[in-house]
Amino acid sequence: MAVKKLNKDKVKEALQELTKFRLIAPAKSDEVVVFKQISDPEEAFLDYGNSTVPPKKVVFPQTETLFRFQRGNPELREKNVEEEGTTVIFGLRPCDARAMSIVDRLFSWDFEDPYYLKRRQLTTLVGLACVEPPSVNCFCTSLGGSPFGTEGLDVLLVDMGDHYLVRALTEKGEKLQETLSAYLEEAPAGEEKEAEEMASRAEGKIARSINTEGIPEKLPTLWEHELWKKVSAACLGCGICTFLCPTCHCFDIQDELEEMGEGRRARMWDSCMFSEYTLHASGHNPRPTRRERTRNRISHKYSYYPKRFEVIACVGCGRCINLCPVNIDILEILEQVVDAS
What we know:
Blueprint: E1 3-7, H1 11-18, E2 22-29, E3 32-37, H2 56-59, E4 63-70, E5 73-78, E6 87-92, H3 94-107, H4 114-122, E7 123-128, E8 155-159, E9 163-168, H5 171-179, E10 185-186, H6 191-204, H7 215-218, H8 227-232, H9 240-243, E11 251-257, E12 262-269, H10 290-309, H11 319-322, H12 330-339
Parallel strand pairs: 2-6, 6-7, 7-8
Antiparallel strand pairs: 1-9, 1-10, 2-3, 4-5, 4-12, 8-9, 11-12
């Protein structure tokens, strides 16, 4: 597909053009970067490492109303995702796009989730390649990813200094290129090869790694192993590792009664690291302590998910390491899994 260039002095004009859609871009909020809907291109902040909260919240909102109801009225008023319109997520990292493609498998598995899948259908992903690792704890290359990875993306941008190399990867991406055609120019000769060399250098800068071979098969054999007590000892059960993970997808559904007999059924993120997550109505809890919950978190990502969907549910973004308040490190846990006997 055609490769174009977008001069950096044209980025704001290009973003203004995209505000005809629901435009989501990285923006600074106090000291952190978040993905949010913007109407003013000045809000966009592309010179960032990675966002604190992954952009998964755009297609899988932290809280959403599925339908509304009125006491005594059998008619349900279901949410129409199409009313949100066409969405462009601009400037997300390749690991976050790959995470969406991994989670797609779950939401289209035994039951097709209409809310998630419709948003995915209406969303175009414009990725920003990682010329430098966003974090010292990135390990995407251990999991089949790459700083210049294209899985899940519709367009990939590569920062070439004074301009971005723009490569459409899908039909959605080609349509977006057409939308921005007034701001794009032909890419200079030889820049595709230069970008390939940059990709190779970027992969070489990823400092941390784990050999995942054999881990999915080994984890079930360690069910009662003492390592789970050891690695979970410091855990606070705060759920940061799951809420900020781009592939975690656990949710709860609740009916909430509001004023005048009006109510809603809502879906909101949940976490397998919370004791209430597996608490039965009888009072029994099959995961009563953080030992069992830590074991489940690691086993789900690195054993259960690959067994079901043939891909590990982790993209090596490093958020769970960077933001854990007690410095629990998933790579150190996996190393202990590898060494356990």
